[in-house]
Amino acid sequence: IAGITQAPTSQILAAGRRMTLRCTQDMRHNAMYWYRQDLGLGLRLIHYSNTAGTTGKGEVPDGYSVSRANTDDFPLTLASAVPSQTSVYFCASSEGPGGSGDTQYFGPGTRLTVL
Amino acid sequence: GQNIDQPTEMTATEGAIVQINCTYQTSGFNGLFWYQQHAGEAPTFLSYNVLDGLEEKGRFSSFLSRSKGYSYLLLKELQMKDSASYLCAPMDSNYQLIWGAGTKLIIKP
User: Fold this and answer.
1) What is the pLDDT of residues A63-111, one digit of tens each?
2) Is residue B10 predicted with pLDDT exceeding 60?
3) Which of A46, A113, B45, B87 has its CA 20 to 30 A from that of A100?
4) How far, in Å, CA of B56 to CA of B54, rounded?
5) pLDDT tens-place string over residues B29-86
6) Which chain B residues contact residue A96 at CB under 8 A?
7) Which residue in chain A is spatially nearest to B5 when comparing CA positions?
8) What pLDDT is recorded for position B2?
9) How many CB atoms lie within 10 A of CB A20?
10) Distance of CA B107 to CAs B11, B12, B41, Å?
11) Among candidates B31, B33, B42 on the partner chain, residue whose Cβ is nearest the Cβ of A108
12) Residue of B54, B81, B3, B97 whose CA lies nearest to A100
């Protein structure tokens, strides 16, 4: 593994189903982030974690939960998916916090469609 | 509130120079990042400015004026592979990046 990986690459999900998007980084970065990106809108922060064992809410946290049991992994769970959660989801990490150390490096993304 | 303003789309010719402007309003300021994002791919880091002035990195340069809440990305000797979206992202007082919708740059031969 080099950098950040995300799984799955894409997924079609029935509304009401539970889904976990996986994110793993091997850079030993302290901070990790989940964003969603919708057409015509900027990246919107869902949840973040400044260090293992801590998490925080971003701009659009409703309907999503995260955990950070260790440095490398930061899964995002949709407890009961709804069509408005159709989006491209990016995981990112940074050395954090502050200055150029907060440069965020992104995973390849997960394209999620909720029907 | 926090706000980013960038042009939605720009067109330029291969070999030319283009400047992508960004104005911002944030709660506090801890630097500004520029990212490039090709269609269907993840954003990739281009530059970081925390002090006023110009930072040059090969064909790409980025400028910051903190007092004006203004930055620009300058791309020289444009190549077809520079066709992408360019995202301006200032960092607020909580060290969170505030993302604009980005500028789609189209390069024509």
Assistant:
1) 999 999 999 999 999 999 999 999 999 999 999 765 556 899 999 999 9
2) yes
3) A46
4) 6
5) 999 999 999 999 999 999 999 999 999 999 999 999 999 999 999 999 999 999 999 9
6) 95
7) A42
8) 82
9) 13
10) 6, 5, 18
11) B42
12) B97
Residue A54: how many CA atoms within 13 Å on its side-chain side?
A: 6
Average pLDDT for chain A:
93
Instruction: For residue B28, give every residue at least 6 positions away whose Cβ sits within 8 Å of its Cβ, in sequence order, or none.
Output: B92, B93, B94
Closest by Cα among B108, B37, B22, B61 to A37: B37
Burial label for B40, CB within 10 Å (0-12, 13-18, 19+), is exposed
Sign of CA dihedral A22, A25, A26, A30: negative
**Tens digits of per-residue pLDDT, B14-25?**
999 999 999 999
Token reading at B96: 């969170």
Task: Say whether residue A107 is in contact with chain B using an 8 A CB cutoff.
Answer: yes
Contact: B87, A42; criterion CB under 8 Å: yes
Q: Which residues of A touch B42 (CB under 8 A)?
A: 90, 106-109
> If pLDDT is split at 50, 70 and 90, which confidence band does A60 have?
very high
State the Cα–Cα distance between residues A77 and A100, nearest whole angstrom. 30
